[in-house]
Design goal:
The complex is a heterodimer of chains A (595) and B (46).
Chain A: H1 3-31, H2 39-53, H3 63-86, H4 112-123, H5 139-169, H6 179-205, E1 215-218, E2 224-227, H7 233-241, H8 262-286, H9 290-317, H10 320-324, H11 348-361, H12 376-387, H13 398-418, E3 423-424, E4 427-428, H14 431-457, H15 480-495, H16 510-540, H17 556-580, H18 582-590
Antiparallel strand pairs in A: 1-2, 3-4
Chain B: H1 20-44
Classes of the chains: A mainly alpha (595), B mainly alpha (46).
Chain lengths: 595, 46
């Protein structure tokens, strides 16, 4: 690791730390319905939306009603995105004529299974892309279907987190807020204003924002190169802020238009973390004890530093087989050193590994480097981040509610150890909360490990409908341990609603589109419903006073307990699978074998 | 089988057909959400 690389990581973290309180204070005001500095502009629009949609702002919902609203919005969103994709050949803003007979020869057909996978992917805030956007999606689909879902799915995640916080903060009540009001406020007061500013910054850095068709350039060698255009910058902003991660271009944030400068790269990472970090402060404010929020913040920070340092160390150390061959790959003033395969020279190892960990700490999934090309241990870090439910600042909202579910498991374990009824921020944690927390954690791991296992052995007829390449393992670019990692990463990314690809796997077949779609649905909604059930259960309970027998849930001891819970639950669940993938690959690399 | 012409423009050489695969994939999602709703109601009684 280099000093300049470590300094970049430290500066990034200090900016996140500085943003946490102001962002948290603002979000707290918004969700408490208090006046903010943008009220004069936004409030009339908010009122207009309520009038048009018939939402009664002051009528609150039980957790079941809140869930029903969330499910109905998700069904509508899925159908809308599915239809727009299937109809894009008839819709405007399609200069490349995708889904028409005039489409370029390399265009990807918008088949039902691909439309299903993509619609599920964007509704669940995953943004897994089985297709190459450059050769598949019209501008209209990108804007009206995908970018809209980037806003809605992010707002849903934050709304669920706020509802769960209300469960902890309120007592002896049946209601946890109004879903429609929470989603509307989140979109209007938080997501849209930040995205407008971020879009202008990205345009200032060199991102494009136009409706032109592709332009053809002649390279220095005289070859002809097609350069795609489009309304990129506006989608880039919400892609990062909403921790969606779906690229406008296939290269995602490694594309010069989609990440023009190192400054833009740093700004993108800050957008990924800022709302997740701010939500920890919102938690502290709403439960009337900001120490509780900072405890979650520092728990996330410890996990963040552990991940980024292991990943950076592994990548900067590089591949020992190259050292054995006599190749110099140490850092000098002229070269970044380390493992630079699949990485942007503009960003080097430090920013590439920082981005890789940030995008998997949160459920973003944007990439500046191909995780498939990381060293086995370097690639293990993003994979493990996803598998532990992305609790490190996390996907907007999803990170906090996932961490709170781990906190419930932690106080349950802590309560067992000291022989007392578990309590968390003044609420007794009882059978129902623990059952729901375990369902959430197990459902995700069940689909990840289950689908990975099936895809590792599933035989399909070559040329058949479900998987034309043949067996499901035939879709991977590498065999043995690395190929297994590609499959495991795909299902982890889907269920974790991350959406980043390890790369190296062709997932655009009906088998992968279907199973990854189901994977995403379970990972998203079988986490959200238990979280809302916990919210409803907690809201009904009385607040209990702190006594000498209460396990403190703020301070260093609880940080250690929570970090331990996240790592132990993750390790116990996934170690066998990881040992067949990146861990086996690491030892094989040390013995001189690559895949 | 339905053919769509949207946006007020003719698209004589383009058609979109609702086939059994559309029904299958949309149906899977609808069934998932119905089951999810059942789980939601069951969770109330846990």
């Amino acid at each position: 690791m280099t000093s300049i690389g470590l300094l970049q990581i430290l500066v990034f973290f200090l900016i996140v730390l500085a943003l946490t309180k102001p962002v948290g204070v603002f979000m707290h005001q918004v969700f408490e319905g208090k006046r903010t500095f943008i009220h004069p502009i936004i409030r009339p629009l908010e009122n207009l939306i309520y009038r048009l949609t018939g939402v009664r702002e002051n009528v609150e919902q039980s957790w079941v009603q809140y869930s029903a609203s969330m499910i109905s919005l998700s069904i509508f969103s899925f159908l809308f995105v599915y239809l727009l994709q299937r109809l894009q050949g008839h819709l405007p803003f399609n200069p490349m004529h995708f889904s028409t007979p005039q489409a370029p020869a390399n265009a990807t057909p918008m088949t039902p299974d691909l439309a299903f996978n993509t619609a599920v992917s964007f509704v669940t805030n995953t943004n897994w892309q089985s297709y190459s956007p450059d050769t598949t999606m019209s501008y209209f689909t990108q804007m009206a279907a995908l970018a809209v879902q980037n806003f809605i799915s992010a707002a849903v995640g934050i709304a669920v987190a706020i509802a769960l916080i209300r469960g902890f903060a309120r007592h002896t009540t049946k209601t946890i807020g109004n879903f429609w009001v929470d989603v509307t406020r989140c979109t209007l007061y938080i997501l849209l204003p930040i995205c407008i500013i971020a879009t202008l910054i990205f345009v200032g850095q060199g991102s494009i924002q136009n409706f032109k068709g592709p332009v053809t350039a002649t390279t220095l060698e005289g070859a002809s190169q097609v350069i795609e255009q489009g309304p990129l910058a506006s989608q880039l902003a919400i892609k990062m802020l909403g921790t969606n991660g779906g690229g406008f271009f296939n290269a995602n944030s490694a594309h010069p238009y989609e990440n023009p400068t190192p400054l833009a790269n740093m700004f993108q990472m800050l957008l990924i973390f800022c709302l997740g970090a701010g939500l920890t402060y919102v938690f502290g404010k709403m439960v009337r004890d900001v120490r509780q929020g900072w405890t979650l913040f520092w728990t996330m920070s410890v996990l963040f530093f552990a991940g980024v340092f292991v990943c950076y160390w592994a990548e900067q150390r590089g591949n020992p087989m190259l050292t054995d061959m006599g190749l110099a790959h140490v850092y000098t003033g002229n070269q970044p050193g380390g493992n630079m395969e699949g990485k942007e020279l503009r960003f080097g190892n430090a920013q590439s590994t920082l981005f890789a960990t940030v995008t998997t700490d949160a459920s973003c999934g944007a990439v500046v480097a191909m995780h498939d090309s990381f060293t086995p241990l370097g690639g293990l870090v993003p994979l493990f981040n996803i598998q532990t439910d992305e609790v490190i600042f996390g996907g907007v909202g999803a990170g906090l509610y996932s961490m709170l579910i781990y906190a419930i498991v932690a106080v349950f374990i802590g309560g067992l150890m000291v022989g007392r009824t578990p309590e968390y921020v003044g609420k007794k944690i009882e059978q129902k909360e623990v059952k729901m927390a375990i369902i959430a954690v197990l459902a995700t791991s069940l689909v990840i490990l289950g689908f990975t296992a099936i895809s590792s052995i599933a035989p399909f007829a070559k040329g058949g409908y479900w998987n034309a390449p043949g067996a499901a393992t035939a879709n991977t670019n590498n065999n043995a341990a690395h190929g297994f990692s590609e499959i495991l990463y795909s299902y982890s990314s889907g269920a974790g609603n991350n959406g980043s690809a390890f790369a190296g796997i062709n997932a655009n077949t009906p088998w992968y589109n279907l199973t990854l779609g189901l994977d995403m649905l379970v990972g998203r909604f079988l986490f959200i419903i238990p979280a809302l059930a916990i919210a409803g259960s907690l809201a009904r309970k009385k607040l209990i006073p702190v006594t000498s027998g209460t396990l403190p849930t703020h301070g260093t001891l609880f940080v250690v307990l929570l970090v331990g819970t996240v790592i132990i639950v993750g390790a116990l669940t996934y170690f066998p699978a990881l040992s067949l993938g990146p861990i086996a690959e690491h030892f094989q690399m040390l013995s001189g074998k690559l895949f | 089988v339905l053919a769509y012409e949207m946006g007020g423009r003719d698209a004589p050489d383009v058609s979109w057909e609702v086939d059994m695969l559309d029904v299958l994939y949309v149906g899977i999602v609808i069934v998932f959400f119905v089951l999810l709703w059942g789980f939601t109601l069951a969770s109330e009684r846990f």
